[in-house]
Amino acid sequence: MLIRPVSNDYRVIGFYLGRIFLVVAGASLLPLAWSAIAREWHPFGSFLLMIGLFAFLGVMGIGLDPEETKLNWSHGMVVVALTWLIVPIVGAVPLLLSGHFAYPIDALFDALSGLTTTGLSLLGDVDHLASSLNFWRHMLQFLGGQGIILAALSIFAGTGGITLYFGEARDERILPSVTSTARFIWAVSVVHLIFGVAALGIVGWLVLGFDPDRALFHGLMTFFAGFDTGGFSPQSTSVGYYHSAIFEAFTAVLMVAGAMSFGVHYALWRGRRRAVFANLETRTIMATFGFTMVLTLVGLAATGLFSSAMGLTRQGFFQVLSAHTGTGFATVSSAELAQWGGLAFGGIAIAMALGGMGSSTAGGVKSLRIGLTIKAVMNQIRQVLLPEHAVVGTAYYQTGRKHLTPNLIQSVMIISLLYVALYLLGAGVGMAYGIPLQDALFESVSASANVGLSVGVTSPSMPFLLKAVYMVQMWAGRLEFVAIFSLLGFLYASVRGK
Amino acid sequence: MTLPRDKKWSSIPGFIGGLTLFAIEALIVAGLGLVAWVLAIVILALI
Fold this sequence. Notes:
The complex is a heterodimer of chains A (498) and B (47).
Chain A: H1 7-27, H2 29-37, H3 41-62, H4 73-91, H5 93-97, H6 104-115, H7 131-146, H8 148-155, H9 161-167, H10 178-207, H11 212-227, H12 245-259, H13 262-269, H14 273-278, H15 280-303, H16 309-324, H17 334-340, H18 342-354, H19 367-385, E1 395-397, E2 401-403, H20 406-432, H21 437-448, H22 464-479, H23 482-496
Antiparallel strand pairs in A: 1-2
Helix pairs in contact in A: 1-3, 1-4, 1-8, 2-3, 2-7, 4-6, 4-9, 4-23, 6-7, 6-22, 7-8, 7-11, 8-10, 10-11, 10-12, 11-12, 12-16, 15-16, 15-18, 15-19, 16-18, 18-21, 19-20, 20-21, 20-22
Chain B: H1 15-46
């Protein structure tokens, strides 16, 4: 039996949502300033309207003024689930008013895809979108990747901070206090912003021959989408637009950094390289990356599309890395990707489904869960093969020595199975609309694991229901289910609770 | 990797530390790329 929430529960949730909306309103001043500097007055008006809406919702939420402001677990989860629903709705306003979307749901799809760091898009003619709107799309990925919650935590560090932090699917506290963890994550982001944008900007300027301001713009957009494993691009042909191996290489660095657990970043930063390679997650992702890489290269070689090792490596490596890190950048078109077929297609789909490390901006099942599952299976096999009274070790290393408990394995298996169910849901709906199994599964995995690679299924002309299903997949995949179940439970308790 | 007590913000390395982190990640990507290139040579030779 669920307990019906009382008035203070709603007020606490509204109060924290209000705080987060005010943070987003503050962050939205950046695209507003951009549009003013670029003299893009139509988007300027749209951003003003959006900021007004965020500020209004924020003030309304703060105005609820609960008697007790401490967040419990359930409140935190509901706040997170609602944040990832309401921010895209309001954030879609400038996109909708741009005239680049055929239907309102398409603008919402893009805003949700941005905030969940997916990268699938229904935008028509991205190459001619106003620069400030492009900036806003990419900034949504930065907000979603770094976590609006983390930003709010940094500014409004309070008693409920840790609940919000975990609700956003970051389950690794790097430093003992959540505020210092949030600050560390921001520091890592600033490091990559400075060096990533500088590297890409210099390549754009000196190698590609862009004007300095254009090189800076492309560097910044690629940083937002790469480090936050989002995958949006200011060009319809994604990273393939640049036709530059060196640009792809620096983009790959940002993708790897984005998919790396902040705990691993911390270990690297502190010079504890042995701890990095002893980490179960690092070992697992190295193994799965190698496996999917071999599958893809064999599949591509078999197609006969590539005769040179360099060409095969460049295309195969970039696509697998983009899929495994959950970024979704591509150097080949959707149509070409659809033609790869067979093992190459399978290798990329598996890489997308597995995803990056936990406590990173990547999506998917995550390498920690894969590693723990493999370890549990190995332990079961050892248990069977060894004498009856033999004790099988359960220790593993991940930010310290830990033990594989039955409860841990149970939660790992439940979340992993939910991901598989989510992958199948979208594939089933796609097939019901006549999309071939292979394409339907690929696109469904891409949406659920917040990747963004596409074989062409995602388009403004796809059925309304399929758009809605992909949106649910992006939302559920980003929050790793728990926050969403908490929201559903909260709503049920509001109606049927005692 | 978790510290026994809360380290302060000032303990985070500055410009050189950040540059080192970025350089290490670039080396990791270069290493992965090199492995992929060797794999591609072997695969093309076998197929």
